[in-house]
Amino acid sequence: MSGLSHAISDPATGSRNILYHELNPFFEQLARFPSSRALRASTLYARLRSEIERVLASVAQEDFAAGLPRHANEVSPAIRATAWNIERGIRLRAIIRTLQKHPVLHESDILLLTELDYGMARSANRFVAREIAEALKMNYVFAPCYIALNKGNGKEAAVPGDNVESLHGNALLSRYPLRRAHSIALPNGKDKMRGVEKRLGCQRAVVADVEHPLGTFRAVSLHLDAHSTQRHRHRQLKIVLDHLEGLRPTLPVLIGGDWNTSTYNSKRAAYSIAGYCRRVLMGVRRVVENHYPHPDRWFERHLFGELEKRGFIYRELNERGACTLHYNVKDRAVNVHLADWIPGWCFPFINWALKREEGRCSLKLDWFAGKGISVPEAAHPPKVISDLNDSDGLLSDHDPIVLDFVPQR
Q1: Does residue 379 belong to any structural domain of this protein?
Q2: Cβ–Cβ under 8 Å, residues 61 and 140
């Protein structure tokens, strides 16, 4: 292919890196296309397509764990899993420190992480998954979802420096061996070439078999599309479940991550605005108390019904009614982000609608689901870990969720 090298040795380190690429010189040209359809019809994309697809279909995997129990002379009676959207890994040092020292999180055997950068200026061009794994002495698998053609949206667009690898994706980390790792491509709910943040690729679920002393199980780190319809999120989940049903050997399964069960059709700003008006008519307090914390009751019922139809459980694996993302009308950073796709005239309406709620509302976006697993009576109950912050603010816009479980033999 003219202008590109197929080599996968990183010249900065001299080490073999399956995610290394030389696509950056073409980003400015690629970003000029107004849609994915126009991009795919171009001669430039035809030249770059094989390299783009190679990078996005790859998974990076390294082992930093010794494969030993958390305590040298014993194995815990349950496996502790933490799922967390870490918001790019922008607060990486504080996130690592929390995962090392938090009284609950530091006992995690497996981390199902979403929204991790690799070589993005907004997160200091770090390989977020690798740095967490190395610091915690865990094995990791990282699957890129997107090749970013610019720095991001909102305040991210103004950060100093340039992207290097320009990758963003999801990951699994484990204290025990990860086998047969791969990713599942999920169709986009919105054209990622339209709007301010232009990206190549799509969401990908990360899958691996975890060889734990209590029994081997299959773990899935799953991030469903934010800018999509309820039907599309259901469709993405079905693709994952169909794939899992075809894998052999059959194993217990744990799925965890940010499923973006906002209750909204967020494919376009107009749909979100209309949906918000509907919820105001339903009664703001009613929605805030009965629907945002319980999206499975109505707005996202088909997604959760699909899980139960396939033999998965979720009710007993999550802290019921505990939300994981919190909106405050006074949060200027969040409003700058929303302003990239919601008209400015909407914000006074949002402020008015939430006035009785003191300008705040919370949503339950992050979930566990499992098949062939159970929660022991003696285990700590499923928990949302809230208020993770320091003097510089929140570590992420999402709260982590924690589950103790055992695979059924």
Answers
A1: yes
A2: yes
